[in-house]
Structure formats: structure tokens, C-alpha cells
């Protein structure tokens, strides 16, 4: 019997959702950073086995939104939860239970979809701390399963995959065997550039940035990309460019290096910066920059 199903990977910002999906697939399909709102789109990761196909939906971290963009991110996460066959609730085991966790549980309690609690970052905890954390969560909700893991160390992930198979039904193979993500190369290019911005900048800059490909040329040996980085204020543009252009140069070189490895060819990347005032609150700009609701 061939099984298949959709698994929504849900959690607060920085719980390790993207790290887990990348570890399951043994391939980087979602960017990672220690900044909130790193993931802005539902990113599908496809794991095809001989007897099953598991489709993981990496979702934006659920948070209290302060912009139209934030409301869009939450809406996409909620849609993935509602449409999934199983929900993985990823929780950072090193952090105490908080208001954000309570809000997330309220969403789970109103759903009939089986919910796994996946306690991440257990490699940082002592055995006693882990037992205490497990007991605390068990008292809050009757999860279908509770599985402690370390996504970074890839600890206990095989067990997680084995357990979830019991919750999947007989079904079709939705995607070809060689497909690992539903997002094409242009999306991945923009995300890699944005990841390097997240890595190099602080404060409000990471949250205020969008990346758009303006022009792309490719042949068998090389890839040329011109990309626009959009920010909300002139001061952010100055920080992003940096003194004598050093910041934008470092971002370009880091992104170029990863894109070369990913594409297997020479990559020449040009980056520009443009100011679009308050774009995160403007519906037309959100659509222009690719932030569409997943259910539209």
C-alpha cells in the first residue's frame, strides 16, 4: 500500500521549522536565520520513499502581527494547518511556555487534524530539563504524539518520520520522484539573497526587506542576475549599502557563492537598493513582491 499526505510544520518564530524540513529532505529548500519572520511563504518540501510520499509545508512563524505583511504570513500558516493531514507543532524546548504558545494551542484545539508536538533543540537540554519540559507540555494538550528532536543535529528525525507514517492514509503520488520543492529557482535566488541580508544586518532591516529579480540571463556555463532589494526608508538603504558600499558587497559575495554551489555554474550577481515607503502595509506592493495568499 502506498501512503501519502500533507504535513504542516507550524510554530512560533525561530522554533526551527525550516531547519527541520531541510534536515528531513537532506537538502536546503528553506532559508534559515535566527531572525523572526525568516520564512515568509509556505514552502513545500517533498519526501518520496518507496512506499510513501510525505509533503511538508514549512510555514511562517505565527506571531502577533504589526503590519499587513504579518497578517498575510499568519493567514498562510493557518491555511496550511486547516488543509493538512497532520500538523507538526514545533516548539523550542529551551524556551519557557509563553503567550505565543498558548495562542498557537488555541488554534490547534479548534482543529480536528492530528497534532504532533515536536520538541526541538533537545541537544541543548539536560535529561532532567527535557523531562520537566515534556511534563509541562503534556498537561496543556492531548497531542497525538510528542517527539523530542534536534533538527540541527538530525537527532530522532527517523523516529519522527516512522511515527507519522501511522497517521497517513493510502493515497496517490502527488509529485514526481525527483521533485523536492514546489518553488522554482527564481524564488530560491531571492530567498538566498534575503538570507544573506538577514545574516549581515540587525534591528529593523531584516523585517523591512523584499527581494525581486529584475533581469536574468543564463547559458550552460554561467548565470547573470540583477536583483532589486526593496526597503521602507532611506536610512535603511544607507545601512544596507554601507560605508563605501561594503555591506552590499559582502551580501552580494555571500549570495553569489551559495548560488554558484546551488546552480553548479559561474554566477554573476548585481544588487540594487530601492525605497518603497511602508510597503509592508500596502496590499498592492505585497502582491507585486510575490506575497500572495496561498488560498487565492
Proportion in helices = 25-40%
Under CATH, the topology of the largest domain is which? Rossmann fold
Q: Report Rg.
A: 20 Å
The CATH homology group name of the largest domain: P-loop containing nucleotide triphosphate hydrolases
- The average pLDDT is 91
CA-to-CA gap between the ends? 33 Å
Backbone structural class: alpha/beta
Uncertain spans: none
Order of helices and strands: EHEEHEHEHEHEHEEHHEH
SS strand fraction:
15-25%
Q: Any idea what the shape is?
A: globular
CATH architecture of the largest domain: 3-Layer(aba) Sandwich
What does this structure look like?
The radius of gyration is 20 Å and the shape is globular. The protein is α/β, with parallel strands linked by helices and 296 residues long. It has nine helices and ten strands. The model has no long low-confidence stretch (mean pLDDT 91). The protein has two domains: 3-170, P-loop containing nucleotide triphosphate hydrolases (Rossmann fold, 3-Layer(aba) Sandwich); 185-288, GMP Synthetase, Chain A, domain 3 (2-Layer Sandwich). Helix 6 (185-200) packs antiparallel against helix 8 (246-263).
Amino acid at each position: 500500500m502506498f501512503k501519502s499526505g500533507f504535513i504542516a510544520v507550524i510554530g512560533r518564530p525561530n522554533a526551527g521549522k525550516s531547519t527541520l524540513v531541510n534536515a528531513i529532505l537532506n537538502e536546503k529548500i528553506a532559508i534559515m536565520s535566527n531572525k523572526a519572520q525568516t520564512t515568509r511563504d509556505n514552502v513545500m518540501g517533498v519526501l518520496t520513499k518507496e512506499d510513501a510520499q510525505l509533503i511538508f509545508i514549512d510555514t511562517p512563524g505565527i506571531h502577533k502581527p504589526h503590519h499587513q505583511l504579518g497578517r498575510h504570513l499568519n493567514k498562510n500558516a493557518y491555511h496550511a494547518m486547516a488543509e493538512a493531514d497532520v500538523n507538526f507543532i514545533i516548539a523550542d524546548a529551551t524556551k519557557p511556555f509563553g503567550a505565543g504558545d498558548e495562542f498557537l494551542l488555541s488554534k490547534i484545539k479548534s482543529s480536528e487534524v492530528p497534532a504532533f508536538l515536536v520538541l526541538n533543540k533537545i541537544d541543548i537540554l539536560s535529561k532532567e530539563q527535557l523531562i520537566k519540559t515534556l511534563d509541562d507540555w503534556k498537561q496543556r494538550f492531548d497531542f497525538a504524539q510528542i517527539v523530542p528532536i534536534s533538527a540541527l543535529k538530525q537527532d530522532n528525525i527517523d523516529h519522527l518520520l516512522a511515527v507519522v507514517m501511522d497517521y497517513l492514509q493510502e493515497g496517490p503520488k502527488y509529485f514526481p520522484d525527483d521533485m523536492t520543492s514546489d518553488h522554482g529557482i527564481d524564488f530560491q535566488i531571492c530567498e538566498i539573497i534575503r538570507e544573506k541580508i538577514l545574516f549581515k544586518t540587525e534591528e529593523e532591516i531584516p523585517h523591512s526587506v523584499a527581494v525581486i529579480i529584475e533581469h536574468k540571463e543564463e547559458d550552460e556555463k554561467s548565470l547573470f542576475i540583477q536583483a532589486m532589494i526593496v526597503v521602507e526608508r532611506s536610512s535603511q538603504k544607507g545601512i544596507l549599502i554601507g560605508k563605501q558600499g561594503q555591506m552590499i558587497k559582502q551580501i552580494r559575495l555571500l549570495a553569489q557563492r551559495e548560488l554558484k554551489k546551488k546552480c553548479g555554474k559561474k554566477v554573476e550577481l548585481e544588487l540594487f537598493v530601492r525605497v518603497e515607503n511602508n510597503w509592508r502595509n500596502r496590499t498592492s506592493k505585497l502582491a507585486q513582491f510575490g506575497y500572495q495568499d496561498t488560498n487565492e
